[in-house]
Amino acid sequence: MKLTISKLTISVSLAGAILVAGVSHVAGASGATPSKISGSTALALAGVIAPLSPLLSGAEKKAVAMLFAANADIPYKKPIVVTADRIVCRTSNVDISLRNCEVTFGKKVKTVNGSTANEIFATEALAGIPPDGAAGSNFESLSKLSCTIDPNAIRQKDGSGADCTFQPGN
Q1: Distance between CA 62 and CA 125 in Å, rounded?
Q2: Which residue, 17, 30, 54, 116, is most buried by CB atoms nearer than 10 A?
Q3: Sorting pLDDT into bands at 50, 70 and 90, what band is 25?
């Protein structure tokens, strides 16, 4: 039993270290100043938003999906810019089935629920978006998202090729 507790402590410590490492490169996540993330977290954020974007071509969406699925050897060579004007996600600790996000692209608003919303919510948390709460609800929001994904740089496997800027909250 003592060994199990020790392993659990190690697991929790490792999980905490991973979360801290994922958030350590966020600048000003709690203020109104733009934040910047790069590397795997930026690719993840672009990866969960790109499929929803009416601004990207099918080839660009496919390229981001392939990169996000650990396939760096893709035929698409040009940088891809994934943008969203606003993302607001909500979960609840009262209605535990509630998970939704509204993603705004210009005048178009896409609402997603369930696992897709959960992926966006969790990725925002990984990116350092601070949660906000109100009577049984948890919110995460950001605005002015702009992620540049460079397939040629990602192919080098040196940690480069994905950068995002955004404004927390709104």
Answers
A1: 25
A2: 116
A3: very low
